[in-house]
Amino acid sequence: QFPFGRRLPCDIYWHGVSFHDNDIFSGQVNKFPGMTEMVRKITLSRAVRTMQDLFPLEYNFYPRSWILPEEFPLFVDEVRVMKDSDPSWKPTFIVKPDGGCQGDGIYLIKDPSDIRLTGNIQSRPAVVQEYICKPLLVDKLKFDIRLYVLLKSLEPLEIYIAKDGLSRFCTEPYQEPTLKNLHQVFMHLTNYSLNIHSGNFIHSDNANTGSKRTFSSILCRLSSRGADVKKLWSDIISLVIKTIIALTPELKVYYQSDIPAGKPGPTCFQILGFDILLMKNLKPMLLEVNANPSMRIEHEQELSPGVFENVPSPVDEEVKVAVIRDTLRLVDPQKKKRKDIHLSCHTNLLIFPAQFQSLCAPDQPAGYCHQEGALPFGCQTLDLVSEAKEEVLEAGQEQDGGRGPEPGLPSLCLKQVFPKYAKQFSHLRLVDRVAALFIRFLGVKGTTKLGPTGFRTFIRNCKLSNSNFSMAAVDILYIDITRRWNSMGMEHRESGMCLQAFVEAFFCLAQKKYKSLPLHEQVASLIEFCEDHLAALDEKRV
Ligand code: ADP
Fold it and tell me: Where are the membrane-spanning stretches (predicted)?
C-alpha cells in the first residue's frame, strides 16, 4: 500500500477510486480514464440510447429511460401518447438521481406529474425509467444479480465474465406496484445497503440461502424447475458485450486524451460490476454498471446492541476472491515469459489506497482462505454454468491459448467472451468507427472536444460539402448541436463539440445523404464513405 504514491515504477497499480488516483507512466492500472463518468446513470442511458436508435431490437435489454430535467416534457408527451394508444397500460416509473448509488434518492411513481420537480431537480439531474413490474421471484422475493466483468483491454476489445456472481434479495415479499406499496423499499429495491437495515435480512452462511446468495445457486434452482439456463447465460453474455460496445466509443476519447498515442503511458484494465434484473420470463435487463464495485468480503454483525464487528462473508468471499485472483492472473506481465512459475512470487503490485484492505487482510482466521470447490454447492453449480456457456455459444479459441491452469491454482473463473464471440457483435460497432473519425480530427492532444476548425476539416477531407450543403450550413450545424449539448448541464471545462454531439451531427449528415435507408444503414454507408475518402487522402500524402 502506497497511499501517497511512490517513484519506482510498478507492474500493476491497483487504484481504489479512479485512474487519476496517481500519475502513472508505465505498467498497468486497474481503472480506465473516464469510466466513472461513463457509467453514471445519465451518461450510460445516453450511450445505450444511441445504440437503441441504431439497433432497437438488439438493445431492448435496457428499460425505456428519460433524462431529467431536459427530457421531462418529452417524458410527459410519450407517456400520454402510449396511454392513449393502450388504455390498459398502467405503468410505474422509477426515478434515480444521477450519480446516486445504493438506492440513494430513488423513488417510484405512477404518473409523470408525481415527479418531485420542486426543490433541486435542476441541480440534481436524474434518470426516470420504466419500472419492471414483473421480475422473476425466488422464495416470493425480488432479487437482482451482480456480475463481475473484466474489461481487460479497450483496443483490441477484450472482455471476460466471471462464471459466478451474487444475487441480492429484497426482504419483503414482492407485490406488483400499487399506490399503497410504492414506498416500500424492502419490497422494490434490492440494494444490499438498504435491505441490511430490514429486520428480515438474513446473513448468508452458505451460497444458497439468505439475503445474498451466489448466482450459481439461483441457476441451479431454476434449472431444477426446468428453466433454460443455457439461453439465460447466453442472453447475459450478449447483454454484457452490447453494453460495453455502447461504452467503448466515449471511453476511447477519454483514453487518447489521458494516454496520448506515442507517449509513455500505462495500459488499463478494470473490473466492472453489472447489475442485472431477471424478468419473470427470464429475460435479463440491465439496471446499471458500477465502475467501483465493492470488493468487501466481510460484513458487519451486531454482536450485542450497538456493538458491531466485521465478520467474514463466505458468499462474498467465494465470488470476489476468484474475480481478483483471476484478474491478476490475466494481467500478469510475466505470464507470457514464464508460463509455469507461480505468479504471486514475482509480480510487483501497488495498491492505492486503503479500500482494498479487507480483501487482503492478513489476519484471516487460519484455514479460512478460499479454495474453489471448498463450498460444496458452489463447486457443483459452477460446472453447470461453465458448461452452459460453452455449449450455447459457438466454440472459439480458449482464452489462454489453450494452456491449462497454472500449477497450484484452480481453473480460471473468468471466461473470455470477447473477442471469442466478436463475429456475432461486429455489426454493432458503428459508433466506435464514428469515434475514430472524431479522434482523428480532434487535433490537439489531450482534448476531448472538437473545435469548429476540426469539424470543418472533417467535412472537407471527407468531401461531405456540396452545392446542397454549403460550408456556411456546416458551421450552422456545428453551432446548433454544440450549443445544445453544452447547455445540457454537461461538464463545461472545455469548449467545443463532445463525441455525443458529433455522433448526433454524423447521424444528421447520414440521414441527409442516404434518405430512404434505415438509420443504421445510413450511418454505416456514411462511415464507409468517410473512411474511403480518408484512406485515399492518406495514400496521396504518402
Ligand atoms: P443505485 O445505483 O442507487 O443502486 P440502481 O439503478 O441499481 O441504483 O437501482 C436500485 C435498485 O432499484 C435496483 O437494485 C433494483 O432493485 C431497483 N430498480 C432499478 N431500476 C429498476 C427498474 N427499471 N425496474 C425495476 N426495478 C429497478
Answer: none
